[in-house]
Amino acid sequence: MNKIRDYYSTVVNNTLIDNNIYLLEMFLPGFNGMAEPGQFVMIKVNETYDPFLRRPYSILECSKEKMKFLIKIVGKGSKMIAHKKMNDKFNILGPLGVGFRVNSNRYPVLVAGGMGIAPLWFLAKRLNSQKKKFSIIYGERSASPLGDKIKKTFKKKVLLVTDDGSRGLKSTATGALSAFLDNITYKKIVLFSCGPPGMLKEITNFGIKRKIPVSISLEERMGCGIGVCLGCSVKRKNTDGFLTVCKDGPVFRAEEVSI
Amino acid sequence: MKVDLTTNIGSLKFKNPVLTASGTFGYGLLMNEIFEISELGGIITKSITLSKREGNPVPRIAETACGILNSIGLENKGIDNFFSEILPEIRKLKTNIIASIAGETEHEYGSLAERLDKYVNAFEVNISCPNVKKGGMSFGQDLTSTKRVVKKVREKTSLPLIVKLTPNVTKVEDFGKMSEDNGANAISLVNTYKGLSIDVKRRKSKLGGFTGGLSGPAIKPLALYAVWKIARNVNIPVIGCGGISDFTDAIEFFMAGASLIEVGSATFRDPDASLSILEGIRNFLETEGIKNIKEIIGVIDEN
């Protein structure tokens, strides 16, 4: 396991790629480039105490001394991070948590909703680099530049669907899944998913019904990101007790957790 | 110049006065992978209860201006798990291990102390958690209950006994005095201030447990005042806690009368905050030409 470190990092590039969504590229001196898809970091927003807590972000891509993140403005902290300029510096703690474990003899189908694309983008990049075949179903409310970017990057591997039918099938990502699986030649499938809680519930149930293994990446409000504050607990399934999203996850097998 | 940072609680010696607050540091094991925690004066464990506790529903954390509202609810796996899984590991750490204990009755506090006696270096009696329905803060808001719990724990152990107080009372100094009179060897304060934060769109509390406990820089002046107030009213060491985020904060607590400090929420922001604060204290004393930390404890006067 890669040792957790706090990297004093510099903004290399920060580009608005969609309405309220930024692609942030960071330089992390000393980072060896090793991280698993699904792992995340805790970004220290600033040196004042407001906001006090760091913010968790999935790693979108990484390589030696570099990391990329997708930052969507949803509140005060994310707004401050999104507005960072080139050469701005702040601390990044990571890589943290447990990422996706890929079972090599099953065909991976990545199901993402909205900003849930971030950890799956990293997984798709990793699968690409390992020359593995896979598919992505990306669901969004309405046709967006982020959807364009996903299509442009992963090309034919991507099925785009929208809630309002403005592009592709008028469907949710999980709604499109059943027909999609019926139409591909692969029969041994594994699902990797990240998105809104309702979507993760649906895909978990889908996996149970169709006897397909599902891994989901969860999101929860975090205090520390390293397993000590117990702020981000999630209930275990079929047994009592809790797991922490930050330390035991954020990626879980769907049968591990009750969501 | 070598600065003397050592201090004592009862018979227990601390190599320096920096401790980590219960509930913010786990049992130290995860943190020890991030930095050398044996550098610290001691660690205070996540509160241990007799039975395992699931804790409160999520969300358990809501951030407020310069602070954190939490409602964890003493989630822990219980004392049996502590003995089998945690104790063998934390006994290897070369620092004082202080077990935080929390019960729903005075007898539970007594049993916890009895069973843990001889396996840890000291106890911190948590009568101040604002996030549980039974026990917790209700003991620390009633003088008779405070007396009963402290007395019961005192009967069961000869280890140094620290009582962690809640600031959610009118006269916190009365609770300090009551603890001292019934056998406490030190007072630690403050636990969190009870608070509320509302999601106006959903018209609901932002926390699954409805109310929470406020910590972080937002409460520091309040905590500092409570420590000052207590330190003038008891003759046992006071451990200051509440929003300490850098070494200057720590020095303020020493000057207000604290002999030791606990670093809490700052660890969430910087995992090694306690270590940086320790280094900062040492540098400050060196720069000021102070040979022994005791020289600055309680130096402020009202005028």
What does this structure look like?
The complex is a heterodimer of chains A (259) and B (303). With 259 residues, chain A is an alpha/beta fold. Chain A has two domains: 5-96, Translation factors (Elongation Factor Tu (Ef-tu), domain 3, Beta Barrel), CATH 2.40.30; 107-253, Rossmann fold, CATH 3.40.50.80. Chain A has helices at 76-82, 117-129, 145-154, 173-182, 197-210, and strands at residues 5-18, 21-27, 40-43, 55-58, 61-63, 66-72, 89-96, 107-113, 135-140, 158-162, 169-170, 189-194, 214-217, 233-236, 242-244, 251-253, 257-258. In chain A, strands 4-3-7-1-2-6-5 form a seven-stranded antiparallel beta sheet. A seven-stranded mixed beta sheet of chain A has the order 11-10-9-8-12-13-16, with helices on both faces. Chain A has a three-stranded antiparallel beta sheet with strand order 15-14-17, with no helix packed on it. Chain A starts with a strand and ends with a strand. Chain B is an alpha/beta fold and 303 residues long. Chain B contains ten helices and 16 strands. Chain B starts with 6 loop residues before the first strand and ends in a 15-residue tail after the last helix. The mean pLDDT of chain B is 96. The chains are: A alpha/beta (259), B alpha/beta (303).
Shape of chain A: globular
Helix content of chain A: 10-25%
Structural class of chain A: alpha/beta
Strand order of the largest sheet of chain A: 4-3-7-1-2-6-5
**Domain module tally of chain B:** 1
CATH topology of chain B: TIM Barrel
List the chains of the largest interface with their residue counts.
A-B, 33 and 36 residues
Comma- or semicolon-separated keywords:
heterodimer; A: 259 residues; alpha/beta; Elongation Factor Tu (Ef-tu), domain 3; Rossmann fold; 2 domains; B: 303 residues; TIM Barrel; eight-stranded parallel barrel; four-stranded antiparallel sheet; globular
Give a short overview.
The complex is a heterodimer of chains A (259) and B (303). Chain A has 259 residues and is of the alpha/beta class.
